[in-house]
Design a protein that fits this description.
This protein is 43% helix and 16% strand. The protein is built from 11 helices and 10 strands.
């Protein structure tokens, strides 16, 4: 049985902010991404996480992109990845640098992966630290499935990435898509967020639908924004199905507002401007 996401449901998934909280208590997030072509992806994810309420975001990018990433926004805490692509050596250095008390991490947006064992090393290290984890884009490879099986992990594929990961291309029919997502979420013990005109989120037990049908959101980078929102939500709600559902709902609402303003000519950074507006109905302080 699947349910359409509504604001009344999402309100229960987003914890209130403590009035006396200190820096870091509302989420410490790690973003690992970027490569030769896709330098902007981790920036979009990181700023989306901040706009979604995370206190601290550590943005890990290849050393060749550190200066430009720092220049783009003073809000980012930038950590250099010592190699241009993800290697075992780069991972060993990275895990020694990142803060010990991270709440969540998202990996893969635009990331070049030279060694798939390196990705497995990074994922294992973060899971051993009980960091909530979201995987996207180049991190969605079949070799990673044994590492995340029965873990509290969210994956955020589009249809092509879903096929690469599971070997099955999601059909256009929504009912058939739901069945396929539920099957793989249940078989792997993870939360699957399949992006599309109707986003489908399932952990194999609960399933939520987020109908958007926004033609403008096919523009590159909107999925990177979503990954950042997912990481922010995971930093505050350790129930993956609830965090992923909250994120996809907020991302969709930001897309609606961006399209309303700019028509079919939005860019991914437009969504960043509207995340706070999309989240405003859920802002609570206790």
């Amino acid at each position: 049985m699947s349910k359409i996401l509504q604001a009344t449901v999402i309100k229960n998934f987003i914890p209130p902010r403590k009035s006396l909280s200190r820096k870091g208590e509302n989420g410490k997030v790690l973003v690992v991404g970027g490569g030769y072509l896709y330098h902007g992806a981790p920036i979009l994810s990181s700023l989306a996480a901040l706009r979604s309420g995370a206190d601290l975001v550590y943005t890990c990018v290849p050393k060749t992109h550190v200066t430009s990433t720092r220049a783009y926004s003073p809000n980012l805490i930038v950590i250099p990845l010592v190699d241009v692509k993800l290697t075992r050596g780069a991972v060993r250095k990275l895990v020694g640098i990142i803060p010990k008390e991270l709440d969540s991490a998202t990996i893969g947006m635009g990331l070049g992966i030279q060694d798939r064992e390196a990705l497995k090393m990074l994922v294992k290290d973060l899971l051993d630290r009980t960091v909530m984890l979201s995987l996207d884009a180049s991190a969605l490879i079949p070799e990673i499935l044994p590492e995340i099986k029965d873990k509290k992990v969210v994956i955020t594929p589009h249809a092509g990435e879903f096929k690469r990961l599971f070997g099955e291309l999601p059909p256009y029919n929504v009912k058939q898509r739901i069945t396929l997502v539920q099957k793989h979420a249940r078989n792997n013990g993870i939360t699957v967020l399949l992006k599309g005109p109707t986003d489908i989120i399932s952990d194999g037990i609960q399933t939520f639908l987020n109908p958007k049908n926004l033609a403008s959101m096919t523009v590159g980078g909107t999925g990177d924004v979503l990954s950042g929102i997912v990481a922010a939500m995971l930093s505050k709600n350790r129930k993956p199905i609830e965090a992923a559902s909250s994120a996809v709902f907020i991302n969709g609402k930001a897309g609606v507002l961006a399209q309303k303003k700019n028509g079919l000519h939005i860019v991914a950074t437009d969504l960043l401007d509207f995340i706070p507006v999309a989240m405003k109905p859920f802002d609570r302080i206790k």
